[in-house]
Amino acid sequence: GAxxxxxxxxxVAKRGQDVALxxxxxxxxxxxxxYQQALGQGPExxxxxxxxxxxxxxxxxxxxxxxxxxxGSVSTLKIQRTxxxxxxxxxxxxxxxxxxxxxxxxxxxxxxxxxL
Amino acid sequence: xxxxxxxxxxxxxEGAIVQINCTYQxxxxxxxxxYQQHAGEAPxxxxxxxxxxxxxxxRFSSFLSRSKGYSYLLLKELxxxxxxxxxxxxxxxxxxxxxxxxxxLQVQP
Lengths: 116, 109
Description:
The complex is a heterodimer of chains A (116) and B (109). Chain A is mainly beta and 116 residues long. Chain A has no helices and eleven strands. In chain A, a hairpin with a 6-residue loop joins β7 and β8. Chain A is globular and about 40 Å long. Chain B has 109 residues and is mainly β. In chain B, 0% of the residues lie in helices and 58% in strands. In chain B, strands 2, 4, 5, 9, 10 and 11 form a six-stranded mixed β-sheet that branches. Chain B starts with a strand and ends with a strand. The relative contact order of chain B is 0.35. The chains are: A mainly beta (116), B mainly beta (109). At the A-B interface, β4, β5 and β10 of A face β4, β5, β9 and β10 of B.
């Protein structure tokens, strides 16, 4: 497809369960971002990759959150021992390359995670 | 840190004009984005401002004043399909965007 895709679209997890969320960026896009969006709020930054390098993970809320992009394309966000406060939509975005003057990000449809 | 403020909700009438304001405080500034987000969908890009002034794109225009830390999104000839959340986002310092909480616009017939 032409856009960013994410899977699954919906995930229900029991508290304490581990989950893995997948993001397929637009082909050729160097930069990849993960955001967390709570209901009624704007997206909040979690982590950023340039190719396979994770350059910024300052937004990850705890050490239960882990992200990887081993081959510089597909990325996985893993949440261990999920808690109710992890319930949110997790958005992935990609952009073509680092440009000092422009940084349009293309968003995927998100994965809605509900922790019971 | 960064702080972005925009109204929570707005209502307007089909065919009218609406202005959605955004104020921000950042350390460092590279540019300001506006995104549209329909319920349950991904944010989609509307506009990008890096210099002061007005950028016009069809029915949508965006204005920026860097000295005032202020932007607005202007939507003309409103249509029912414009009912959505409008997200103001600042690019400052790092690659990622910092988003406001969004303004939910309801267009009424």
